């Protein structure tokens, strides 16, 4: 079994009209055995900046801690909030530093520019190759299923409520077709002045 | 007599003194004043701004006050370049602790770790000590609000109120008289006291908001909040002080007139 599929995960992010959404499943499992259904894979890095980390669970936690270290120093030295695009470069750099012994995570970033409020999403592979898109990004053990769902359901300029429906349906139906992800889902809708966190009721298998 | 023993930091003089360290403290005695007062509901740091040149472009957050991490801030007196190196190191120390223990570093430990670094420069390496004294204000869950002072020798102490920089001895003696040691002073009263002490120790005719910078550290909703006071707020305290001084002057005059009569 691939190391990236050892713990199982499904994460996606979508752009909407002046908003972004990021959603993830909540399963923490060890191969076929499910251990807990409340494992956080999305982390808040700033008031309007979130990163989702699918992959090996120990690396999910370590990368999050090391990223927080670098981000705290950045904010203290520069005395301002980091822009999503710059944050993407920071994550990419952190992962490439371990080019020949990588962290087994393939992050997904979603956020709004702190000044202009412009939506931003990006994903990258485990050695830091970034990909910025204007529609959606997916990462995890059921990425093929997620690509299929997003491609059919997504449309541009969705309002926050519609974006929530779209991302929830896309994620749920994708991870229902994957044995090692699922067991609950969490969705964050990020708008300029508020962030809404919603839990989804899903098939518990 | 001392001249032969002060060219290297790493040796004692015959009288048992480290001259380089003392010379470093001498350098700090000429720098802008920095004073710290601890109140029951918060701490404040008040500093004298020296860079009041009109041509200076004001881009940085603050001239002498630095945020170290969520729960602690510091102000410096001495060689600014040395201060930048030390504050960067303080920030790294705090983050390394958070990375290792997933909780905030206790205030004293941060001060102590940096002081170990400072002490190394007084014992080996052949380099000169840092010409900076630092006042730290912070909060932690073990001991609440704390105020610390560290100097080039690597020595540090916890204080209720203290001062470093130019005229610090005067300020400290004034604080000794005025600071009531019964833990009842609140932040507003501490702000008034700091303005009073600064006005008396700064060698200038009139105290104005653009010559001082005051930062406060308090706890709100289980989070530490650090703020630099804006000019209008500082002006309020200055006005209050000036009114009280005027009242005292008027009373003194009345007493003097009474005695004459």
TrEMBL record, chain A:
Gene Ontology cellular component terms for the protein in this record: cytoplasm; nucleus; proteasome core complex, beta-subunit complex
Record GO biological process: proteasome-mediated ubiquitin-dependent protein catabolic process
Gene3D superfamilies, alphabetized: Glutamine Phosphoribosylpyrophosphate, subunit 1, domain 1 (3.60.20.10)
CDD domains: proteasome_beta_type_3
SUPFAM superfamilies listed in its UniProt record: N-terminal nucleophile aminohydrolases (Ntn hydrolases)
Subcellular location per the Swiss-Prot or TrEMBL entry: Cytoplasm; Nucleus
UniProt KW keywords: Cytoplasm, Nucleus, Proteasome
Domain of life per record: Eukaryota
Tagged with keyword Nucleus: yes
UniProt subunit comment: Component of the proteasome complex.
UniProt similarity note: Belongs to the peptidase T1B family.
Function: Component of the proteasome, a multicatalytic proteinase complex which is characterized by its ability to cleave peptides with Arg, Phe, Tyr, Leu, and Glu adjacent to the leaving group at neutral or slightly basic pH. The proteasome has an ATP-dependent proteolytic activity.
Protein name as catalogued: Proteasome subunit beta
Automatic annotation (TrEMBL), chain B:
A Pfam cross-reference name: Proteasome
GO biological process: ubiquitin-dependent protein catabolic process
InterPro entries given in the database record: Ntn_hydrolases_N, Proteasome_alpha, Proteasome_alpha-type, Proteasome_asu_N, Proteasome_bsu_CS, Proteasome_sua/b
Limits of the Proteasome alpha-type subunits domain: 5-27
Residue ranges that the Swiss-Prot or TrEMBL entry lists as coiled coil: 234-261
GO cellular component: cytoplasm; nucleus; proteasome core complex, alpha-subunit complex
Chief location of this protein within or outside the cell: cytoplasm
The entry's keywords: Coiled coil, Cytoplasm, Nucleus, Proteasome
Listed PANTHER family: PROTEASOME SUBUNIT ALPHA/BETA
Name of the protein in its database record: Proteasome subunit alpha type
Organism annotation: Elysia marginata
